[in-house]
Amino acid sequence: MPELQTEPPMTQRGAAETTVQNPNVDAHAQWKPRVNPWLIAATVALAAFMEVLDTSIANVALPHIAGSLGASTDQSTWVLTSYLVSNAIVLPLGGWASSLMGRRNFFVFCITVFTIASFLCGAAPTLPMLLVFRVIQGAGGGGMQPMAQAIMADSFEPHKRGQAFALYGLVAVLAPSIGPTLGGWITDNYTWRWIFFINIPVGILAFILVTRLVEDPPWIKPDKSKLRHMDYMGLAFLTIAMGGMQIMLDKGEENDWFASGFIRFFAFLFVAGIIGLVVWEWRQKDPLINLKLFRFKNFAICCLLMMLVGGVLNANTVLQPQFMQELLGYTATTAGLALTAGGIALVIVMPLAGFATGKISARTLAVVGFIMFIVTFRYAAYVSNLQMSFSQASWLRVIQMLPLPFCFISITNAAYVGMPKEESNQVAGLINFVRNLGGSILIAITSAQVTSRAMWHQQHLQSAMQSGSNAFTQHQQALTGFFSGSVGAANGATMAIASIYNQLNQQAQMQGYQDVYMELSWMSFGLVFLAFLLSKNRPGQGPGAGAMH
């Protein structure tokens, strides 16, 4: 067999192939950034913090914006909605955009767009102009979160990745918590325009640092042909779905939900857009969003868990200050100060949780975190009453923050386990997308549920306001006597009834919040069971290791 003699022996041929193939494989496997990865992490975290902060910093300034630009308060809420819709559409596009122009270039582009748009928002002379600039700002910000996370994931070795995600988790959790406080302070002491102007120096600094410190790994190479083959239908379906969902959630309670044709129309757009997106993207050879990643069991479960964790985080950030302002009479600044202790607790616990991910499996940490959620929400239901002190409110916020690092970091870490390195951009984009999606959904649901439960309790309590009730009669007579001394007997009786009704409404509202906290605790039981479905990875395991379908 002469042809066999022309080939080298099997061992020699294998060695020859190894010498040819291994350099690229080794270059990918052993690649490390040329600067300290913690410098890179701090740099991208700075940009991400600026962006996440803008999702909540304008909330308390809406009345000032409306008054300054001659708009109604209802119209000013579109300042939030326009940003969130644009942000939600761009979040999943990070994978495609980074493959088109390179991840670092896309990150720098997003910082540039966000910073310029921030200046334009601050200088906007009319509300329509402000909304246009907010859309542009949201588009720039939408690419920054997933790219920051993906850059961190690739800059650190797998066993150190949890510590890096601790820094990112601090950004993702702390920024929306302090946003309303910072926005209120700036608005009260300066003008609402500085809410946007403060992004300019931060954006310039982030631009300089990213261009100098961040580089793309060898497996990420720009491919300009992606522009010619862009999935425009996928983008259209995504835009319709996210626009419909955000408007439905933002305006649902105001328009009595599905009793309104306006809400039903946008609900239809949301459902139709989602169905079209899934069917279209699943069939595409080069999709805008790689939905086939959901065939990885761990990744699919992590997305569901992260959606619920994001929902809990954002709902908590709205519920507690709202409770303090509506029922305890706190100002926006005072309510924000009550949340400060929770931020300090996060700074302490986040690094500990990041260190723990290198020693303990993600599944175990997630289960522990969700059990802590159960305890936290039950405690919140117990302590949230009309006699709650500032100290109790501060401690409640601390307790609410403690589970988040363990849940956030462990789920983020587990999402990358078993995934190809080339998909890290898609993984980051989808994880951030579902977190924001969960936030929007749970904020709307919990706010509506507080109102619904308060109305139920109001009706229940009103049944006790009968003339035949001894307790009601005695309380009414005591108040009538108290008011009569200053306004006369007739007016005193009227004021007594008004005072009792006001107390009833406050009690009903308080019980509505307590009910929602209990409902969140029951939801946390479900999260514990879901966490047990995660595969028990080896601590420090990273992309490509032990793929789990």
Characterize the structure shown.
The protein has 24 helices and no strands. The longest helix is centred in the C-terminal third of the chain and has 43 residues, at 489-531. Helices cover 77% and strands 0% of the residues.
Q: With helices defined by DSSP (H or I, 4 residues minimum), what is the helix count? A: 24
Q: What is the CATH class designation of the largest domain?
A: Mainly Alpha
Overall body shape = globular
- Looking at the overall shape, the CATH architecture of the largest domain is Up-down Bundle
Low-pLDDT residue intervals, each spanning 5 or more residues: 1-28, 542-549
Radius of gyration of CA atoms, rounded to a whole number: 27 Å
CATH superfamily of the largest domain: MFS general substrate transporter like domains
Q: SSE string, helix = H, strand = E?
A: HHHHHHHHHHHHHHHHHHHHHHHH
Write down how many β-strands occur, each being a DSSP E stretch of 2 or more residues. Answer: 0
Report the β-strand fraction as a percent range: under 5%
Mean pLDDT: 76
